[in-house]
Amino acid sequence: MVDIAIYIGRFEPVHSGHMALLQRALDSAPQVIVVIGSAWQARSPKNPFTWQEREAMLRAALAPADSARVQMLPMRDYYNEAVWVQAVRQGVARMTTPGASIGLVGHFKDATSGYLSAFPGWQLIHVERQGRIDATAIRDAYFGATPATARAAVAPLAEEIPESTIATLERFAQTPHYPALQEEWRMLRGYREAWAKAPYPPVFVTVDAVLRCQDQVLLIRRAHAPGKGQLAVPGGFIEQRETVWQSCLRELEEETHCNLPEASMRAALQSVAVFDHPDRSQRGRTITHAHYFDLEDAPLPAVLADDDAALVQWTRIDQLAGLEEEFFEDHFHMLDHFLGLTGSITPHH
To answer: Which of 60, 115, 158, 311 has CB 3.0 to 4.6 Å from 221, enough for a Cys bridge?
Structure first.
C-alpha cells in the first residue's frame, strides 16, 4: 500500500480498461489522484470531451464511496515531456502532504507509455493490459454513426464500456458538437487514407507566423476542417520551390493580406522555433517552423481574412490565456513558447 495512488489518462471516452486501472489504484491507496490529460484542448476527433465532461464520466462509473476517495488533476498537453512531468509533479505536490508515499498505476502498452518511467521516487504499480479495445476504436465507431444510431454503433463494444459512458455518448450525439466533430473525423480519415499507399508514412512540413504589434498578436479563425472555427496563427504547408522563410511570408499574406515589405519583416524577426512533437497534428507527422516577429510600436498593419481564414483579428496578449480552449492543435503552446503565457504552469482558469 501507498498513501496516494496516481493514475494518468485521457479518458476520451471512459472504457472498462480505464476503470480496471482506476480500481487497481483504489485498491492500492486510501486516496487516488486521477491526472486527466489533454485538458483545455479545443474539441477534436481525438479530444472530443472537455476535462470536466471526462471527470463526470469517470465519477458516473464509480460507486459513490470510491468517488469520494478520488481527486481530479486536469493537465494540459505541453508537447514537451520535461515540462509536462514538472507540471504533474507540481500539481500532485499541491494536493498531497509532504512525505506521503506515492504510487503510479499504469501499464506499458507502447512508446506513448514511456512517461511512466519519468517519475523517479514514485513506486510503479504495474497492471497488465485490461480489455481488448482502446478509446480510438470507440471514437471511430461513434463518429461513424448518426445521432439516432450512436448507441447501436457502440453496441458491439458495449461489454468494454460502462453503461454510464454509453448514456453520455448518446446524450452528446444530440448536441451541435457531434456533427461538427464528425465532419472533422471524416476529413482526417480521408486525409490519412489518401496517403496510405505512400511507400513511407509521410512527414509534412509547415510554417507559422506569430506576428506581434503593440502587445497584440495576429490570429485567424480557421475556415475549414481540421479545426474549423478554431483560433490559429497564420500558416500552412511549404511549397516545393520555397524556403521556409518564403513560405512563411506567403502564407501570412494569403491568409491575412498583411503584406509588409520583406525588409520590415526581416528586421522584425526575433526567432524561429521548430515544433515537432509526434502528436501535435491529427493529420499525421507534421513539423512546423514558427517565425516570431515583433513590430513593437509600429502602426497595426491592415488585415483582411482570405484563403483558409474565415476571420482575422488582432488580439491582446493579455487575453490569450483565457482563450486557450479555442486554439487549434498546439497553437496556444506555440504562442506560450514565444510570449510566456502560462508562467507558473498552472492554468489561468
So the answer is: 311
Q: Is residue 184 part of a domain?
A: no
E strand map for the chain: 4-9, 31-36, 70-74, 102-106, 123-126, 203-213, 216-222, 231-232, 235-237, 269-275, 285-294, 309-316
For residues 270 and 294, is the Cβ–Cβ distance under 8 A?
Answer: yes
Whether 129 and 273 share a structural domain: no
**Residues 61 and 19 sit within 8 Å (Cβ to Cβ):** yes
Please name the residues in contact with 181: beta carbons below 8 A apart, sequence gap of 6 or more.
43, 44, 45, 48, 143
Domain membership of residue 139 (yes or no) is yes
What DSSP element (H or E) covers 339?
helix 331-339
Is residue 150 located within the same domain as residue 256?
no
Long-range Cβ contacts of 85-88 (<8 Å, 24+ apart): 85/115, 85/118, 85/119, 86/345, 87/345, 88/8, 88/35, 88/119
pLDDT tens for each residue of 278-324: 999 999 999 999 999 999 999 999 999 998 899 999 999 999 999 99
| Residues paired with residue 8 on neighbouring β-strands, in sequence order | 35
In this structure, the answer to whether residues 249 and 164 fall within a common structural domain is: no
Q: Which residues contact 292 (CB under 8 A, 6 or more apart)?
A: 210, 212, 269, 270, 271, 272, 273, 338
Contact 5, 29 (CB under 8 A): yes
